[in-house]
Amino acid sequence: MAPKDEKKQGGGFFASVFASFSSLGNVVNGLMGYEGLEVVNPEGGTEDAEEEAQKGRWRQEDRDSYWKMMQKYIGSDVTSMVTLPVIIFEPLSMLQRMAELMEYSNLLDQADECEDPYLRLVYASSWALSIYYSCQRTWKPFNPILGETYELTNHGGITFISEQICHHPPISAAHAENEHFTYDITSKLRTKFLGNSVDIYPVGRTRVTLKRDGVVLDLVPPATKVNNLIFGRTWVDSPGEMIMTNLTTGDKVVLYFQPCGWFGAGRYEVDGYVYNAAEEPKILITGKWNESMNYQPCDLDGEPLPGSELKEVWRVADVPKNDKFQFTYFARKLNSFETAPRKLLASDSRLRPDRYALEKSDLSKSGSEKSRLEERQRAEKRNREDTGHHFTPRWFDITSEISPTPWGDLEVCRYNGKYSEYRASVDSSDSFEEADVSSTEFNPWQYGNLVSR
Asked: pLDDT confidence of 317, banded at 50, 70, 90?
């Protein structure tokens, strides 16, 4: 670990992003006549690019046609403006991916119970980092339909609800709570399509409140780059800084995600420190986001304290072997009705027919159902424009608060508490009859029986 002063010379987030581009950015340009095309083999060097370009999940004819179609979008935000084939999708929606961060929620429980304010940040930041293991999956989740929701229960005492509250630009909100913490996020992903890669900017605000002491934590994650979208094997890198700040005390943790270099050098590695409010290092943190994270008390120069030991704080749980979508066991549970509450909302992502068809490996039906849902969404939009109506989220309120982020301002959404009231009413009702929820028709719609035109 470098001392704090040496670390600061690196220039922080933007320097790290530049370093990632300079280390791998000049691999290929103009491969096979495709102007501006860049193919990167994270395990090799420049001489591997042409061979790498022939690999991946696309058939050559599909790959060539999509490359021609996508060239006009280079430099654009393609978050929801491009219709993509289900061959590159996984059977989850983005709302379910938001819930995936709850897999290691026990770390937040430990943070809440912890007496040491600096060790508390070790637990909390390890929880925030744990989601990056799932980011190795390069399948795209389904974009949520406006009004779509996702509920999660039966995990760590958590009640989780997420909702798609805007389609253009796509904005999602989520709230989770148990006896130890509350978690709130407003997410408005922004992208920049670069040809054979895309930069993903996590425009959003994440707040965690630890209930015992009322401590409020704010999280700013690094940007992500998805490489080899069309040519080559798709892979993900997230070079830069993750910063978690204790808004109550001013303490913070800064974790630096190393960029992937030639032949995989530095890939997955994370290093950083917990600082007190005076920006003095107190605990060093080191590890790999795809394996485990460790911590050790340090002196003011960032060096381990004599007599102290490096201790493990988090390790990836066992994962299924040969899963088609590289799902973890927890990701599999996200589609299970065993993690659903009583009287599941009909707008829940589990009920999406396109998602379910893909889960059953029926790509043809998944594609047709995806097209049908998207056309119904467009029809609803036209109807709102014709009637002067506005979509109103059910479980979150859009506020006038604007939160600045490194990638642009964000309109903050606030959990309105109505879901907790609704869930308490359902759970306490004796008249509720159990039914086969899997047969419930997916219904996020604002209007009933709307005919597309």
From this structure: very high
